Amino acid sequence: MFRRALTAALPRSSFAASRLSSQPARHVLPAASRAARSLTGRRAYAAASTPRSCPQCSAPLTTPLPVCTKCYWISNIPAEMTYHEMLGVPYEPNPFVVDTVAIKQELRQLQTVVHPDRWVGKERVKQDAAAVMSSRVNEALHRLSNPLRRVEYILQREGYPTSESENLEDPEMLMETMEMREQIEGAESKEEIEQVRAANAQRLEETMQEVTELIGRKDWPAAKVAAIKLKYLQGIENAAEAYLPVKPLFPFAARCNMRLVALNARDYRGSSSFNDSELAALESPDLQSQRSVVRACGRELAAFLVWFIEHEKLPPLSGSTENGAGRRGGISVLGWLFGSASSLL
């Protein structure tokens, strides 16, 4: 997502971005058969019970999903079906090893079958089922295409879920990550930031190799520890990436007697993360799904601007000269990827 900054000729202020809520999609057809449970309470990972031919017209099914494009039969995705199975890649022997190019190609193929546009004119219950299925496969790609989200998904399925409250237990590495964050915040040039990123990239590569080996051995407790380490290192990369365009502006703002407020958009350091359904919608080929999330983010930004103006008692823009040098008050909103700035009166 884009990054934004506010400039205001008033004292400093900080804010916490609010988290958008999202309700999970609901299946509209009769519930599919439930996954068997092992004696330990974890999921059993037998192959999903999707039929390989249509139970309605007997035509072969062209995808791993329970949907027929010949007679437009559609059913719920079986509860035991993994994201790997949905995207045509094996869960065993090592679910962390995934060809990301292949799963993106598979998603495009699946969307030609389950995209809601294909089901326009069909019964409403089938349109709703197709929309749910389209969202599920988008979510599958979202989870499997990113190493951190992938290992968290695998650990969750294996009964070892991670949580935001879990911290790194290695004191030496914890100290290293804290030092890297301090280096990022104290950096005065892009080169200094890139030096931190280069050192962190090596640690990221080593940790992902560690995760691969541990999951291959089914050592789930150790894999969870490595996943938490991966989360910390990925946080360093995200912080460095977000800091690059902002840092050089601070000296200019001070010289112009302006207050620069760096506003991190959703999913950036210091702000709220997108949930799985929002990220799946953003990565979806469905433009309407993308627009709905972007509009929600726009409303969130507008709500913050209203709060900021009222909380800081910002005066309206006043004064006028030919070059604008005599103007006071007001704010400007700048978005890096927009390439422009506009004044809000």
Explained architecture:
This protein has helices spanning 83-86, 100-114, 124-144, 147-157, 171-186, 190-216, 220-243, 250-255, 276-282, 287-312; strands at 4-8, 259-263, 331-335, 340-344. It is mainly α and 345 residues long. It contains 10 helices and 4 strands; from the N terminus they run βααααααααβααββ. Helix content is 46%, strand content 6%. It starts with a strand and ends with a strand. A 4-stranded antiparallel β-sheet has the order 2-1-3-4.
Structure in a nutshell:
The chain is mainly alpha-helical and 345 residues long. Helices cover 46% and strands 6% of the residues.
Topology:
Layout: E1 4-8, H1 83-86, H2 100-114, H3 124-144, H4 147-157, H5 171-186, H6 190-216, H7 220-243, H8 250-255, E2 259-263, H9 276-282, H10 287-312, E3 331-335, E4 340-344
Antiparallel strand pairs: 1-2, 1-3, 3-4
